[in-house]
Every structure is written in structure tokens, then in C-alpha cells.
Amino acid sequence: MRMEMRRCCWWLALLMAGAAQGATLNVTAEYNPATYEAEGAKFINTTPCTQFPDATGFWCSTTATVETPQAVRFDANIKRQVKESSDSREGLHYLGFPGARDVTLVKQGGGASYTLKFIVTAVGSEMNVGSVPADATISEKGDCAYVIAWKNSSSLFVYRNVKESASASGGRCHGQNAGAVGKDLTISSIYLGYKLKAPNPLAMENGTYTGKLTLSMGRNQDFDFGAGTYADTQLTVNVTLKVRHQIKIDFPAGGNRVVLQPPGGWHDWIYRGKSNTPSYIDAVLPARFWVAVPYHASLSCQYLNSRGDGCQIKNDKNDHKVSVQVYGTGIRNREWPIYAGKTDVYAYHRILADSSRPFRFVVEKNSVKEMMKYPGSTYRGDITIIIDVAIN
């Protein structure tokens, strides 16, 4: 049995929150059906790119999938003094960052959990120094590669890419400017480039998945922005991943084959000495539906009946055929027939979540009576149920 499904959609929302007095960042993403058809299931990052400082290309950029690096900014309040020291944490520029971290996403209401990987790809800061040195050059050492620097009359801005060799385990970037030595320094903004290794949405049920990642900030912590005092000592990353398939259907293993039998089975029928014809023979194919839009249902038949609206199965020893009626289970467990050559719209515009929607295949009594004239034979036929979302 073949099942066709078309155009499914997912939406992803990621919230990053600082500690008790920290800033909150909202990062959004969604699944693009057109991209799905071309490249496979991908979450698309749609976070607005709010540029600060107002220097084109400084750090903010649009992106495609969540696996492509994107940058965000959050407020900070870290105060220290720039010193000439063997301790690089006391220099002008110091950025320590963590390695890749796993976030466990748990489905609200119960169900499967998944792992999302949060990977730091870039890091930067806004450093307020009162008056910027005439020569604002900042050296670059450690686990970052120079990307860009910018300045205004009172602040220095740096943004550095994390070297790929350090993205998994974490590292530090640091540099000095001789003209800044002795100056009081306040870090008021932190720039964070990241990418996500997200679960495959095709393998996920509809629902909302949440997880939390807590990262420490301070000396030798997950994020270390140099020697000084920190108003906030942790950064909390709250992840909310929403999956809303337009339509998703799961069948059990072996769901491509059904065997029609009388109520109780042929064994029960034969050994209880029943001589009359069964009132029907049938089989049920379980299926779990997640539906966010109305959908079409129709049949494609290997053997089409004479009216052209239903399927038949054929005796493997002769050309005798009988009709098989196919039903789907609707709301309130009401059965509705599915036809060949005729497309009806189902689901009544209701959103169904994790709903049991079995299919039933039935040969009625008169046809069963005809089949019993050929004992020892088998009737077979391919019946394809075609499900397609109703998109205008």
C-alpha cells in the first residue's frame, strides 16, 4: 500500500534569556515548504536582523537554515580596568566561549524527546572606554579569527569568528591596545554568533518542545569577558521548538499489507462449525494523524470496479473479482467512504493532534458469498490511499 503526503510545515521558535537582570533575545525560525521540496526538511531562521552599531555588515546578517551561523546581541554590564599584564584577562579584549552543548527538548504533554545542539560560531563585545585611543588597533590571539572592528568616539566594537577547531570544545580570544592601558572599561553589549543542529522535523510529532541550557559567566566560566565585576553571572538559553505538520501520518510496521477475515477470524469461523456465509470480511489498518488543515482523500486501484469509483481484488486462479470498500475514521469515530476517481475534503477544518484515524477495508456479504464458490484460492489487489493537504 502506498501513501502519498505533500507539503508539510514546521515552525521553530528559540528564546534566549539572560540571568535575572539580563536581556532577553527572541530568535525565530520556520520550515519553508519550497525549501523542503528542494533540499529536505530544514528549519529556517527568520530572526529580524537589528543592526547595532549602525555599521553595515558589522555583525548582523540574514541567514537561511538554522545550521547557518546567525548573530544575536544581548545587554551586559561588566566593569573592569585595562592593565598591562601577563594575564590576558586584564587586557582590552578578552572573549572566552563554551564548546557545543546539547539541549534536551521535551514535548509538552508527554511524548518523545529530542536533542538539539547549540554551537557558538562567533563572539564579540561593545567596550565603552570613555575616550577611544587615536590608534584603536586591537591585536588578535587565541581561538578566534579576525572579522571586523569598529569604533566611535567612546566605544570599541569587536566581532570575531570562532575557529572551527575550537567550536566543539570552546576556547578564548584575546588582544591588547597599548593606548587603552589604565582606562576604565565597561562591556555593555555582547555579540553571539551561533548555529543549531536541530532534530529532523520529519521524524517529530506535532507539538511544542521545550528545553533549557544554563551557561555561566565570569572568571574561567562558560563565557568569560575578562577580569572585572559582572552584574550577571549566568546566561540562560530557553529553547521552544514548535512542530506543526500540515499533515503527517504514521503507519505501523508492515502497514503496506492487510488480510481480510470474518469477525473473529477464519479459524473461529471454521472450528465453530459455521456453515453460513460471513456477513462480511474486513481488515483495519491503524494510522496516527497530525492534521493542521483540511485534506483530500482518494483511491488508486490496481483493479477498478465497473463504476470507476472503487477498487476490487482478483482471484489468483481466475479472473473473478470482488469489490472492496475502503473507509476512513472521522470525528466521533464516524466512518466515511473513500472513493477512486473522486476527491472529497475531510477533517472539517479542525486541527487534529495525535489522533487515531484507522482505515478499514470491507468486502460485503454478497461478494463474500461469491468468493466462497472458489475454496482454496486467494484474492489480491493493490489499493493506494492518496492523502493530500487541501491548499488553495
Put simply, the count of helices is 4
- Let me know the average pLDDT: 82
Helix/strand/pairing category: mainly beta
- Helicity level: under 10%
State the separation between the terminal residues, measured CA to CA: 27 Å
The shape is: rod-shaped
Count of β-strands: 28
Q: Biggest sheet, open or closed, and with what strands and sense?
A: 12 strands, antiparallel
- Tally the structural domains: 2
Q: Give Rg in angstroms.
A: 31 Å
- Uncertain runs are 1-20, 34-39
Beta-strand share of residues: over 45%
Structure description:
The protein contains four helices and 28 strands. With 392 residues, the chain is mostly beta strands. The strands form five sheets. Strands 2, 3, 4, 5, 7, 8, 10, 11, 13, 14, 15 and 16 form a twelve-stranded antiparallel beta sheet that branches. Strands 18, 21, 22, 23, 26 and 27 form a six-stranded antiparallel beta sheet that branches. The chain has a four-stranded mixed beta sheet with strand order 1-28-20-24, with no helix packed on it. It is rod-shaped.
Describe how the helices and strands are arranged:
Blueprint: E1 3-4, E2 11-18, E3 24-31, H1 33-39, E4 43-45, E5 70-81, E6 93-98, E7 101-107, E8 113-128, E9 141-142, E10 144-151, E11 155-162, H2 164-167, E12 170-175, E13 184-197, E14 207-216, E15 229-230, E16 234-243, E17 247-250, H3 265-271, E18 280-285, E19 288-291, E20 295-301, E21 311-315, E22 321-329, E23 335-338, E24 344-346, E25 352-356, E26 359-364, H4 365-371, E27 379-380, E28 383-389
Parallel strand pairs: 1-28
Antiparallel strand pairs: 2-3, 2-16, 3-4, 5-13, 5-15, 6-12, 7-8, 7-14, 8-11, 8-13, 9-12, 10-11, 14-16, 17-19, 18-26, 19-25, 20-24, 20-28, 21-22, 21-27, 22-23, 22-26
